[in-house]
Amino acid sequence: MKVIPLLKIFPSRYISLLAFAKSFLLSFGSMFHFSGSLNHSHEKSRWAFTFSVSDLRSITLKEEGWCFLVFKLKEPSASLPALHFHQGGSREFLDSMRRYKLKKDPYVTTLGGFSKVTNYLFDALRGTEEQQRRPPEEVADLLGEVIPGLEINQQEEPGFEVITRIDLGTRPQVTRREPLSAEDWTQHQDPEGRMINVSHLKQVIFKGGLCHAVRKEAWKFLLGYFPWDSTLEERKALQRTKTDEYFRMKLQWKSVSEEQERRNSRLRDYKSLIEKDVNRTDRTNRFYEGIDNPGLVLLHDILMTYCMFDFDLGYVQGMSDLLSPILYVMENEVDAFWCFVSYMDQMHQNFEEQMQGMKTQLVQLSTLLRLLDLAFWNYLESQDSGYLYFCFRWLLIRFKRELSFQDVLRLWEVMWTDLPCQNFHLLVCCAILDSEKQKIMEENYGFNEILKHINELSMKLDIEEILHKAEGICLQIKSCKVGLSSFKEENWYFCDYTPTHPEGGDITSVRPRLLSNPFLGHYSPNSFQI
């Protein structure tokens, strides 16, 4: 018996399984019938039953001479007749349902996948019948749906053993400093408003972050909205141009009539999803709490306008999580929009339908963890967790739901310095896992326990401890650069990073280099930058 999870996968809409089955019958020519009957006035609909897909908890596939499907709803009192397939075709029917889901809701491939891998399994752990252990191979199949092309089952190959011969040595201790003050920020400007000593300024931000009074201006530089070498007058002119451009795009969707909207299904879908997500994004934050909050209106309008800016991508669940802190800091609709555009330029691949960004990052993270801690990686691999899919949410929205709101602000501005390497967020993942590995291994956590444990870390993480450890890991890798040079033929390369005292001095900007291995598949030489 195989239970196929559907909780939180499908959007809230009603579909007729009879109509769906008829469509399937035309495609595959399989015979089936519904067991049980419902009292309908017309003979044609005598065997039909309809329910909301949002109420569906699971589909159980059973075999008793032939296959039949049992639909289980969230409401335990509700029961549905079984769907029988006497001449085969049950698996094709399920595949057809999945294709129907993806065709109707392309955004599901992004955060819907995240929901399947994380939310559903955690909910299942709290259930009754769902408490039985989920077969690892079933989750491998599930991940294959979430991230097409990602191979879960790894096989040892010659060449990867190079990692076992690397001694990373003792992890260096690092120090951090207080956030950059408004006075310090002003001292890094020339009389015309250009930013000076930018490399040192980025180092100070990396080491301590920013005081909140500075964020509104500094984030525009860190995100690339303002050029570092621009004068104050040039920035004012840029803002005027960008303001006009923003409101022209906003007018495009604001001026769409109801009749036009009825003929534009994509716009309707974007609008509906945005409205749902806005109403549940950071509602405990004072900036967004309450009914008719103006912050929610701005959040909605910026996301709708982004659909006009990038209509191919439009809106995907999770993007509201990336915008919320930016709008909170900017307190200005236009500035928040263009900063969000800059951030989405970095995060775009995370939300694309093929999810190439997520596939690449998961491969990179697994590679990196195997280098740093082979014993822990082997343990995770033995529990069918070697691809670190429980880090999916961390990577997708950059720890937005793992940290307190203020800690998210601190982490993001540190990462935006691109120090000590461009993919510092992967070292942040390693730092968190390093803190949790002892408990995971000593308690002999299995597949489900690892998922549950990682999920329960949300809002319990210490951002300063994580940043200390992540930087220390980077220095640890750098310290064994000489030892790694002998394995050049294995394509293991590491960047140069020169740490300094937090109170001053220069820091070398990291030049991205490749960290790869043929064992982990093929990806762009520029994709792994550490």
From TrEMBL:
Does this entry carry the keyword Membrane?
Answer: no
Q: Does Acetylation appear among the keywords?
A: yes
Main location per the UniProt record: cytoplasm
This entry carries the following GO cellular component terms, namely: cytoplasm
Query: PANTHER family from the entry?
Result: TBC1 DOMAIN FAMILY MEMBER 15, TBC1 DOMAIN FAMILY MEMBER GTPASE-ACTIVATING PROTEIN
State the function annotated in the UniProt record: Acts as a GTPase activating protein for RAB7A. Does not act on RAB4, RAB5 or RAB6.
Q: Which domain of life is it from?
A: Eukaryota
Q: Where in the cell is it found?
A: Cytoplasm
InterPro entries, alphabetized: Rab-GAP-TBC_dom, Rab-GAP_TBC_sf
Q: Where is the Rab-GAP TBC domain positioned along the sequence?
A: 209-419
Q: What is this protein called?
A: TBC1 domain family member 15
Q: What is the lineage of its organism?
A: Eukaryota, Metazoa, Chordata, Craniata, Vertebrata
Q: How does it assemble?
A: Interacts with non-phosphorylated form of RAB8A; phosphorylation of RAB8A at 'Thr-72' disrupts this interaction. Interacts with ARMC12.
Q: Which PROSITE patterns does the UniProt record give?
A: TBC_RABGAP
Q: Name one GO molecular function term.
A: GTPase activator activity
**Record's keyword terms, sorted:** Acetylation, Cytoplasm, GTPase activation, Phosphoprotein
